[in-house]
Amino acid sequence: xxxxxxxxxVASTIRLRSAERYAAEALGALGxxxxxxxxxxxxxxxxxxxxxxxxxxxxDTLGWRYLGARSCVGKPSGGxxxxxxxxxxPGVRLVVVRARRDDGAPVRTLVRVNGAYAATIxxxxxxxxxxxxxxxxxxxxxxxLDVSRAAQSPAQVxxxxxxxxxxxx
Length: 169
Prior knowledge:
Elements: H1 7-12, H2 23-29, E1 39-41, E2 54-57, H3 64-67, E3 70-74, E4 80-87, E5 91-101, E6 107-113, E7 116-123, E8 128-136, E9 139-146, E10 157-166
Antiparallel strand pairs: 1-10, 2-3, 3-10, 4-9, 5-8, 5-10, 6-7, 6-9
């Protein structure tokens, strides 16, 4: 409903092993990813990030109209799409990524932080949220989805949000 008093409760529900699907999305809809929580949310992208072709609304499953779903789309250059992030709190963080590929079979995708391997996630043709623990440095961070090793590299990759939260199991 847009009430900012819900932010602490919503953030507290996000865990590494969790069945909920829309809590990180709700943080973005409440406008706190970026200003209050480290990460990127396409809703707040006033300009298209370097390396991406466009940002705009996308149709999604339940709640897309209410949550104002937006994403940024890019073609993997050199097998990667890279997003700049600013991390205020360094250390082991829970990273939540909501992304998808254009179409086709699922693709195992390396996540790189400042060029170093951080995790492996799967990109599918549907919006999926992946979660992993990673050591993140403070300051400007290069966050990349690397599909260069995929047998069938996607023509395009969409990113809705990347959220960095205190690590909790």
